[in-house]
Design a protein that fits this description.
Oligomer: single chain
Structural class: alpha+beta
Number of helices: 3
Order of helices and strands: EEEHEEHH
Number of strands: 5
CATH class of the largest domain: Mainly Beta
Number of domains: 2
Distance between the termini: 69 Å
CATH topology of the largest domain: Pemi-like Protein 1, Chain: D
Radius of gyration: 23 Å
Strand content: 15-25%
Helix content: 25-40%
Amino acid sequence: MHDAYRHCSSADVVRETKGVIEIVASVTSRGQVTIPARVRRHLGIKTPGKVAFVLSKDGTAIIKPGLTMLDLRATLPALPGASVDFDTEIAEAMDEAADRRMAKMRRQ
């Protein structure tokens, strides 16, 4: 193996050149890759979490932390007259869904 490479763990190989770090990880037969701890720390990826893959026409790909609905919860102001209590909103939505299911069962 080339001197610029070194093992980071049993599955990862690291290559550092000109301030750029390349970390190679294996892909399983099911198409799964474990994101190396060094990459997760660098990107601030927490578990459980999501990542976004940004693909360019030139063949490059960028991996960045993905946003979840919880990440977006405070990015927009509430609509006028709308509740900002998510627990209440969720409970009301669940009650409405249960009411719809019960009404559908009664019609059958």
